[in-house]
Amino acid sequence: LMLSLLDRMKLDVDKQIVKLSPGEKQKLHFVFAVSFRPDLLVLDEPTAWLDPDSRCAVIDVIVELMADQARAAVISSNSLADLEKLIDHVLVLREGAIRWKGTLDELREAYVRVLLSAAASELGSIEAKWIDQPRRSGALVEGVMPADEAKRVIEVYGRRGVDFKTTPLSFDELYSLLQK
Questions:
Q1: What pLDDT does residue 173 have?
Q2: Where are the beta strands (DSSP E) in the chain?
Q3: What is the mean pLDDT of residues 75-100?
Q4: How would DSSP label each residue in 121-166?
Q5: Fewer CB within 10 A of the end CB, N or C, for the chain?
Q6: How many CB atoms lie within 10 A of CB 107?
Q7: C-alpha span between 66 and 60 (Å, rounded)
Q8: Stated pTM of the model
Q9: Which phi and psi (to 5°) does residue 159 adopt?
Q10: According to the model, what pLDDT value does residue 69 have?
Q11: 143-153 b/e with 16+ CB inside 10 Å = b?
């Protein structure tokens, strides 16, 4: 397995470790970590220093290893786009405190972006629990709120002629939201 991983990561087996670039060293560390197919894989920034092709290769290997339901991985990373491809459960920490714990789907369903449109006088009377101060522009109000609050607001104010549009937040936006 190790030789196939070295080949897959495009590492030259004849090159001395001291002559490897930071990205090559990162790939070598990754190969060492996964080559014995551990039941629990703990990775800190596994795609740091890597070019896009190498990042994809690392992600593919992790996905393949985790396909065996008897294995688990704990991954710490600031590369949210990479994490989103790998994870099913999320633990977001801020200053040592847990800000979110649950599945990625639960996180995506917990908050929505809401766009309200109506007469300016009607929009001024809307009471809602926004996450941040919403942006107002004439007959439009846009902001983020908990999904259950959005349902309540739509139910109450929809009867008054307020139009609503909700859209999901990206993983980056959700993470930023939880860091506030």
A1: 94
A2: 40-44, 72-76, 89-94, 97-103, 111-117, 135-137, 140-146, 163-168
A3: 90
A4: HHHHT-----SSPPEEETTEEEEEEEHHHHHHHHHHHHTTT-EEEE
A5: C
A6: 20
A7: 10
A8: 0.76
A9: -70, -15
A10: 78
A11: bbbeeebbeeb
**Residue 180: which residues within 8 A CB-CB, separation 6 or more?**
131, 132
Residues 34/5, Cβ–Cβ less than 8 Å? yes
Query: Looking at residue 10, what is its pLDDT?
Result: 95
Distance of alpha carbon 118 from alpha carbon 124, whole angstroms: 10
Q: What are phi and psi of 46, to 5 degrees?
A: -65, -20
Determine the Cα–Cα distance for residues 180 and 176; give it in Å rounded to an integer. Answer: 7
pLDDT at 45: 94
CB contact at 8 A, 61 and 93: no
Residues listed for the chain: 180
Written as six digits, the tokens of 24 are 């090559």
Question: 110 in helix, strand or coil?
Answer: helix
- Biggest CA–CA distance in the chain, Å, is 73
pLDDT in tens, 117-163: 988 777 777 889 999 899 988 889 999 999 999 999 999 988 888 99
